[in-house]
Amino acid sequence: MKGMSIEQLYDYLCSASFQDEKSGNLFYNYYIYQYPAVNEYDIRQQIQEFKKKLERPTNFVNALELDLFQVFCDYLRKEKFGDNSLLDDTLEEDKTQPEMVTKELTAEANSDGFMMFVRDCILEHKRQNTELKTPYVFIHGIGKMFPYIRTNVFLTRYEKYNDPSSYRIILFYPGHQEGNSFSLFDTLEDAHTYRAILLLNK
């Protein structure tokens, strides 16, 4: 087996078998698409194209695109620390205490508050698009979240807020698999996400 091309991924997302809510693992809805890190910009553009095409009447699939780093910034902007948002306060601290900022951002990225914020983004999108089929949630930007949270940790932490019967998460991972581990950016060792389904061309 080998990795899917971006064209093969789109065909797979359009297939009736994958869109069938009863197919696959009914208790785990995580899918990972790996790609070379040098293709990051092209992948972001493709995700936007996927979203537009999947929502057309030929598919009628509800697709949500989430840049995880942007969602994290929105979360920090919403959280208050005194009169300032947590984002503004962090930017000020970063000028004088960068190590403390890294520690604080890591704690926030791994927090239940952030996981609930991600869940609420997904649920709000669903509420606004009830006429479409069960959605796909495209998550990218995981590389920009390093070192605050790793892929396997994010998926594990989000699990208790997840609803496998309600949507499917396709996480775009800039790297490749080496044995039982993933390699973020094709250079940094990352733990393997055992319960996620790696999208391959069988």
Summarize the entry for a quick read.
This protein is of the alpha/beta class and 202 residues long. It has helices at residues 6-14, 16-19, 40-54, 68-78, 86-94, 98-109, 112-128, 151-158, and strands at residues 2-3, 30-35, 61-67, 80-81, 84-85, 133-140, 168-178, 181-184, 188-190, 197-198, 200-201.
- Average pLDDT, to the nearest integer? 83
Structural class: alpha/beta
Distance between the termini: 5 Å
Largest sheet features: 7 strands, mixed
Strand content: 15-25%
Q: Tell me the number of strands.
A: 11
SSE succession: EHHEHEHEEHHHEHEEEEE
- The helix tally amounts to 8
**Uncertain residue segments:** none
Main attributes?
two-stranded antiparallel sheet, 202 residues, seven-stranded mixed β-sheet, 11 strands, 8 helices, alpha/beta
Helices and strands, with pairings:
Blueprint: E1 2-3, H1 6-14, H2 16-19, E2 30-35, H3 40-54, E3 61-67, H4 68-78, E4 80-81, E5 84-85, H5 86-94, H6 98-109, H7 112-128, E6 133-140, H8 151-158, E7 168-178, E8 181-184, E9 188-190, E10 197-198, E11 200-201
Parallel strand pairs: 2-7, 2-10, 3-6, 6-7
Antiparallel strand pairs: 1-11, 4-5, 7-8, 8-9
Helix pairs in contact: 1-3, 5-6
What features would you describe in this structure?
The chain has helices spanning 6-14, 16-19, 40-54, 68-78, 86-94, 98-109, 112-128, 151-158; strands at residues 2-3, 30-35, 61-67, 80-81, 84-85, 133-140, 168-178, 181-184, 188-190, 197-198, 200-201. Strands 2, 3, 6, 7, 8, 9 and 10 form a seven-stranded mixed β-sheet that branches. Helices cover 42% and strands 24% of the residues. A hairpin with a 3-residue loop joins strand 8 (181-184) and strand 9. It is α/β, with parallel strands linked by helices. It is globular and about 50 Å long. The chain has a domain at 8-15 and 41-169. The protein is built from eight helices and eleven strands.
